[in-house]
């Protein structure tokens, strides 16, 4: 798989795992600076890696990928893209042989304003050319100018996680995690990028009667450690770095709650929030009109606070810390909502249905009209 283990990578893995029971065979194209192994056979899919030659604004590019893509597209019945990845737009638009295509739209492009203006014509051509666009929540669809522009071919398929793909941890593993991190802490899990807004979380911690554990690594880690030192909160925050899945699951079971401080629309869903819900933890997130508020319903599964406010974040964590009964109730509700809406099985079934619709459409002159995303979000 790709070299990082963030939310999109986990979504790709879950799509592969959960469409297999419906007869879908998956192959994945990934870019990597290290391609000592060109093909990696995994349980969920065979991964083909092309050398990453260049990266601009987190967009990897590769000359070698054109040939690898052509081979994989010739094998496939459906080509599934994950947006935003402008290089994927180029691969699609330069393909000599077109296959039915679907793109999972994870996020608007938010930060790179100048590059966004330059990229917009390519984006519009790509999204206009693909057969189906999948948004991951009705919340994000309703607030995205891009998705609403293409609403006639948008479906809503929430991200789902298959609990069986996560390890069962032993009591010994939980005890090991307890010795390292304690318990009843607040947990953040994810790649440390700018749009995770962890600086807001650190600003909320001075004087707090609890600790926060940050599980993950990434480009902002050094700045965050320096901020913690300036604030004098080194004893309040533990930067765990990258943790293996077994340790992550143990941490989720020991945490009082999962906290997600992002206030930018680049954080379109929040797989870390969904993992917290799967393990019955109450959730703390901010309201930015994205899928995070589809996962976390304020007052039911956790608390949703004003974006960019350390004081609001602090008040929410204080409530869950001082009211363990409320935290347990919200954790149970989060688990129930996960079981109802966000299982990997539900996601895999819907994607398998869409793949079937696309391959059927490619064999007949005219296909029946599809429900729009606006209609689907009202169901």
Q: What are the defining features of this structure?
A:
single chain, 379 residues, alpha/beta, Rossmann fold, 2 domains, 4-stranded parallel beta sheet, globular
Compile the SSE list and pairings.
Elements: H1 7-19, E1 27-32, E2 39-41, E3 46-51, E4 54-56, E5 59-61, H2 64-75, E6 79-83, H3 86-93, E7 101-105, H4 113-129, E8 132-135, H5 138-143, H6 145-149, E9 154-156, H7 171-181, E10 186-189, H8 198-203, E11 212-215, H9 221-231, E12 237-241, H10 245-254, E13 257-260, H11 271-278, E14 283-286, H12 292-295, E15 302-305, H13 310-322, H14 324-341, H15 344-361, H16 373-377
Parallel strand pairs: 1-3, 6-7, 7-8, 8-9, 10-11, 10-13, 11-12, 13-14, 14-15
Antiparallel strand pairs: 2-3, 4-5
Helix pairs in contact: 1-15, 3-4, 7-10, 11-14, 13-14
């Amino acid at each position: 798989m790709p070299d990082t283990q963030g939310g999109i990578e986990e979504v790709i893995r879950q799509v592969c795992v959960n469409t297999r029971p419906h007869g879908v065979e998956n192959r994945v194209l990934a870019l990597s600076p290290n391609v000592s192994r060109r093909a990696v056979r995994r349980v969920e899919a065979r991964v083909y890696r092309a050398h990453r030659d260049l990266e601009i604004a987190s967009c990897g590019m590769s000359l070698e990928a054109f040939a690898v893509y052509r081979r994989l597209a010739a094998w496939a019945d459906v080509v599934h893209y994950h947006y935003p990845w402008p290089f994927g737009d180029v691969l699609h638009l330069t393909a000599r042989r077109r296959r039915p295509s679907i793109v999972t739209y994870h996020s608007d492009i938010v930060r790179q304003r100048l590059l966004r203006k330059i990229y917009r014509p390519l984006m519009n051509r790509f999204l206009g050319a693909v057969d189906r666009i999948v948004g991951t929540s009705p919340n994000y669809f309703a607030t995205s100018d891009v998705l609403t522009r293409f609403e006639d071919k948008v479906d809503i398929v929430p991200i789902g996680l298959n609990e069986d793909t996560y390890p069962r941890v032993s009591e010994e593993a939980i005890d090991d995690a307890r010795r390292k991190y304690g318990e009843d802490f607040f947990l953040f899990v994810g790649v440390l990028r700018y749009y995770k807004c962890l600086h807001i979380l650190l600003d909320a911690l001075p004087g707090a009667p609890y600790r926060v554990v940050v599980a993950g690594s990434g480009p902002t880690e050094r700045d965050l450690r320096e901020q913690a030192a300036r604030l004098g909160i080194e004893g309040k925050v533990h930067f765990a770095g990258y943790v293996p899945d077994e340790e992550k699951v143990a941490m989720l079971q020991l945490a009082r709650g999962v906290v997600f401080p992002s206030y930018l629309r680049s954080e379109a869903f929040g797989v870390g929030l969904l993992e917290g819900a799967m393990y019955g933890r109450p959730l703390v997130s901010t309201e930015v009109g994205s899928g995070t508020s589809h996962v976390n319903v304020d007052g039911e599964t956790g608390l949703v606070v004003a974006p960019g406010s350390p004081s609001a974040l602090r008040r929410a964590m204080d409530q869950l810390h001082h009211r363990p009964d409320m935290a347990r109730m919200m954790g149970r509700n989060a688990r129930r909502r996960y079981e109802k809406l966000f299982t990997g099985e539900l996601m895999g079934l819907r994607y398998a249905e869409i793949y079937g619709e696309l391959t059927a459409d490619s064999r007949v002159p005219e296909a029946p009209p599809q429900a729009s995303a606006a209609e689907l979000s009202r169901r």
